[in-house]
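Form 7-S
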Amino acid sequence: QVRLVESGGGLVQPGGSLTLSCAASISIFSVDAMGWYRQAPGKQRELVATITRDGRTNYADAGKGRFTVSRDNAKNTVYLQMNSLKPEDTAVYYCNAGYYSGAYTPVYWGQGTQVTVSS
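Output:
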């Protein structure tokens, strides 16, 4: 069983930054791709960004321009750097491990970490 544990969420003012971390219980190098999703209140869960085993990144509309996904294979950790945060970025952010078969398919999920952007 793969265990993913997110951390780094919290309350931040508009325009601020946060870095989320996702620690995996396995070698993330053995995983085809890792990703971040988010779910805002009353909305569907949406893809934010993914990063493949070889470091290729892909950003959905939710993550383009202000977010950066990265990975540290030695620490089995994936990060999501979020800058210029807006109130509409308020959501529970989920880390996942999955694979690409055409589109990204998440298989394992973390429990999520709350990000609240508010003054």
